[in-house]
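A quick aside before the break. I want you to see a complete sequence-to-structure record at least once, exactly as it would be stored in a machine-readable document. Don't worry about memorizing anything.
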Amino acid sequence: MRTLLEIEAAIKQLSESDVRQLAAWLQSYLDETWDQQIEEDLTSGKLDNLIAQAEAEAKLLEKAARQGKDVATVAAELLASVLEWEAQDYEEAVEGIQRGLDDFEAGRFRSFEEFAEEQRRKYNLPSNS
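That is the input. The structure line, written in tokens, reads:
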């Protein structure tokens, strides 16, 4: 194998036509290599986050256009809405856990066996015995 300096020197000895032909071949080679790398990255999932981000951005742009609003305004409204929902969901989860603890402390609970039997009857499931 020749060194890069030897290859460069050899290229300088070529005619302009041959150099252009070599350049076209080299560009084709680089394009094929790029395409193979992109295909590998797609297959391996390396590009999934970028694709998801681009799809989300396209949806955001579409929503902003439909509403006749600035993209930043629509993004801020959506974020505020999601954060409000998350806070409400968290609060409801904590309240539900507290109700369960209160019920347990007050003796309002049943055994797993009772629960499992109820589910078997409710969903017509076979018993484990």
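Two observations worth writing down. The chain has a mean pLDDT of 95. Residues 26 and 32 are 10 Å apart (CA to CA). We'll return to this after the break.
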